[in-house]
Amino acid sequence: MPKITVTIAILFLFSFSAFSQKTNLSGVLKEGSEKTPIYNSVVALLTPKDSILYKFTRSDKEGNFNLKNVKAGNYILMTAHSQYADYVDAITVEEGEKKMGTIALISKINALREVIIKTGSIKIKGDTTSYRASDFKVGANANVEELLKKLPGIQVDKNGVIKAMGETVEKVLVDGEEFFGDDPGMAVKNLRADAVKEVQVFNKKSDQAEFTGIDDGETKKTINLKLKEDKKKGYFGKIDAANGPLTTMDSRYNSNLMFSSFKGKRKLSAFLLNGNTGQDGLDWQDSEKFGGRDDISMNMDDDGNVSYEWTGGNTDDEPYVDTQNGFIKNTNAGLQYSNKWNDKQTLNLSPKYNKQIYTNNNSKITQTQVGETQLNENTSKVSNVNRSNFKLNATYDVKLDSVNSIKFTAKTNFYNTESDEFINGNTTGEDGLLKNKQEKTFTTKSDKESLFASILYKHKFAKARRTFSVNSSWNTLNTDANNFLKSSNESYEGGDFSSRVDVDQNKIGEKTNQNLALNVTYTEPIGKKFALQFGYQVTHNTGESNYLTYDYSEVTGKYDLVVDSLSNQFKQTITTNKPNIKLSYNAKKINYSFGSGFGFTSFDLQDQTLNKEYKRSYTNFFPTANFSYKYKSNSNLRFNYQGATKQPTIDQLQPLRNNQDFFNQTLGNPDLKQSFTNSISLSHNSYSILTESHFYQNISFRTTANLISYNKDIDPESAKTISTPINTNGNFSGNFYFGYGFKIKKIDLHVNLNPSVNYNKSVLSINNKTNNSNTLNSGFSIYLNKSKEKKYEFSLSNRFSNNRNSTSQNDEIKSFNTNNLDLDIGVYFREKWKLSTDYNLNSRQKTVDFQTNLTNQLWNARLQRTFKNDEFTAYILVRDILNQNIGINRYVYENVIGEERNDRLKRYAMIGFSWNFKNKGETTKK
C-alpha cells in the first residue's frame, strides 16, 4: 500500500509539473501578395528528433490558428494547404503564451515560378526552359520541326517560322554550335527528332555581352538541340522521291536526300534537294545576302545593326525572282562540318550551292495620283531567269589560353545570272485616252563576287568584367554586268500618236564596294553592378562605279557609239571615326545601360566623267539606351532607344540616268546628305509553363531626319517620270502588336490571338511639291490547335486585315480588306495509315478602283502508309485539287494603288516513296 501511494504521488507531481509548463501557440495565416486570410489550412507541430506529429489544428475563416496546451520545448512548425506552398520553420516554445504573428504563405503557382521547376518533361532554370524530347511523342521518322510543334510554348507556322514564348526564333544551335550557318530552318528540317535528347530555349546574349559579362540589351531567341550520346556515334538520313503519275503532262518531281553523321564532337551533315515544285527556293533575305537584289538596300549602321530599305528602282539590273510565283526548277545542296579539339579549337565549315531556272508571266495595274490627275498604267512581263550561286561560310575559333582567344571568320559568295524580260505596257489618263505605249526586251548577264573576312581578338583580365577586344573586318562586293536593251517607245497627245523613240543599246557596268572596319573595346567594372565601356571605331568605305552605254551602229553593225548622257565613272570615299562611352548596370532583375558615340564623317565624291568633286563632313551624336526588368521568371519588360545614321549608296549618289524603262527613269544625286533615325521600342513578354500561356506586346516608334526618298517629276501629258533621290523631313512610323496564347485544358485546345496595328507617315515629293502620305494597316488573327497522338491533328487559323491610305493631294481614302482562312487536318487509322489535308480560303474585297471580289480556294491532300517499323513510307498527294491557285497581290503606298498577278503552279499529283535510315540495330521495335 505505501508503494502504491508513493507511485501515485510521484505521477501526480510529474503531471502537475508538466501541466504547469504548457502554453498556447497562436498566429495568423495570410497570402503573401494579397494579405488575405487563408482558411482551413493545417497547422502542425512535429518533434524534431523523429518528425512525429505532436499536435495539429486548422485555421479559421480569419486565418487564425491556436494550438493549446503545448509543452515547452523545440518543434517543427509546418502548414499544409492544397493551394499554397508548405511553410516549415524550427521554433522554440517557452513558458507563457507564444504568438507567431502573421505567417505569409505563397501560392503554389507563384512559388514554382520563382524556383527551378521540374515536372519530369519540362524544367526551368533561370532564363532557360528545357524540354525532355522523349516525353513528347511524334510520328515515326519525324524531323525536329515536328517535335517543336509538340512542345508547349513553341509554334511553327506553315512557312517554317518558329516562335518560342511569343518571340521569333533567330538561331537554332546543335550542341551549342551553329548548324548550316545561321539558318534556323536547316537544323529543324534536317535532324531527326529521335536523335535529340533535350530542347533548350533561351535568350542568347550578344557575343560582346557574353564576353564582357555586361548586358547590352541585345538578345536573340535561341533554341539549342542537345543530342543523345548514342546519336553522336552514328548516322541517320532520309531519301525521298516523288513524281507525277501522268507522263503525257508537264510532270512534277521532287527528290530529296539528307544525311547526318556524328562522332563525338565532330558533326557532318549534307543535303541535296532537286525539283520543280518551288520547294526550297531562295527567299528575299537569302537573295539579298547573295547580292541578288539591289532595289532593296542592306545597310549596317555604326553599331553594327543591319536594316533593309527599298531604294526605289532596280538600278543594278538584277532580275527579281519571287519563288512563291512562276515556275521554278531548282537544285539546292549543302554541306556542314564542325569539330572541336581539346575544347580549345573549333572549326565550322558550311558550303552551299543553289541553281534556279525560273519563268513567270506577270501583269500589273497601277493607278498614280498626280494632283487632280490620275494615270493608269497596264504592263505585262514575261521573265526567264537562269542563275546559280555558291557560298561558303567558315569560322575558326582558338582559345590561346584561359584569358586569350582569337576567332577567324570568312565568307564568300559567287553569283552568276542570265535572264531576259519581254515587256508590253501602256499608260492612259483618267479619261481613258492613251498617253504612251512601250515594247521592250532586256537581257542580262552578270557576275557578282562577295568576300568577307574578320579577326576578333579577346582578352580577359584577372579582375572580373575587365576586358579588352579588337575586331577588324573587311568586305567587298564586285559586280560585272553586260546588258542589252531594245525598246520601242511611243508618245500620244489627246489619244493620237505624236512621236516614237527606238532604243537599241549595250550597257556595261562594273561596280566595286569595299569596307574596312576596326573596332576597339575596353570594359572597366566600377563596383559590383556598374561598369564602363569605352570604344573606338573606324570605318573606311570606298566605292567605284563605271557604267558605259553604247548605241548600235548601222554602219559597223556593232555597239560602238558611246552615249555620253548615259555613261559615267564615279568614285566615293566615306570615312567615319567614332569614339563612344557607355555606362551599364547589371543586377538579377534589372539591367540598363546608356551612353553615346560621337561620329566624325567625311565624304569625298569624285565624278570622273565630268571632272567634279564633292566634299563634305559631318559630326553626329549617337545616343543609345536600353532597360530591362525581369520581374519574375520568364517575364520581362524591355525598353530600347537608338540613334543612327545611314549613308546614301553609290547608286543614289552617282549622277547617272537609267533609261531601262523609258517612261520611268532614275537619276542619281551627288548632293545627298546622310540621314539620321531615332528608334524607340517598348516590349513586354510573359510566359507561364504551368498554365501554358504566353502574353507579349511591342510598341515602337521611328522617325528619320533627312530620309533618302525620291522626287518624281511626272509629266501628266506624256506620263513620263524621272525619279531623283532627295532628302525629306517629317517621316514617321509606329507599330504595335499584341499576342496572347493559352490552353483550354478541359478540351486540350491551344489558342493564340494576335492583333496588330502599323502606321506610316511618309513625305513624298511630286514635281518638287511635297505631300504627306498616311498608311494604316491593321489586322487580327486567331489560331486554334488540337492533337492526339496517333489519332488526329487539327489546326484552324484566320487572319483579317485592313489597309487604308490617304495623301494630302486629295481627301479620298483608299481602303480594302483581305481575309485568309487556313484549316489543317490529319487523321490516323489502323496505325500505319494517315490522311492529311489542308484548305486555304483567300478573300479580297472589291473597291472603287478594283470592282471585283477576288476569292480563291486552295485544297491539298496526302495519303500515306508506313512499312517495316515505319522505316519506309509510300504516299500519294494532290496539290490544288480545285485548280484555283492564283498569284495576286493588292497594295497601297504613297500616291499609288496597284494590283499584281503572277503565274502559279496549279493542280498536280505525285506518287512518292521515302526511306528513313539510321544505324543498324537502332530501329525501334514495336
TrEMBL record:
Descriptive protein name: Outer membrane protein beta-barrel domain-containing protein
InterPro entries in the cross-refs: Carb-bd-like_fold, OMP_b-brl_3
Record-linked Pfam families: OMP_b-brl_3 (PF14905)
Span of the signal peptide: 1-20
The keyword Transmembrane helix is annotated on this UniProt entry: no
Gene3D superfamilies: Carboxypeptidase-like, regulatory domain (2.60.40.1120)
Residue stretches making up the Outer membrane protein beta-barrel domain: 459-774
Single annotated GO MF: carbohydrate binding
Keywords: Signal
Domain of life where this protein originates: Bacteria
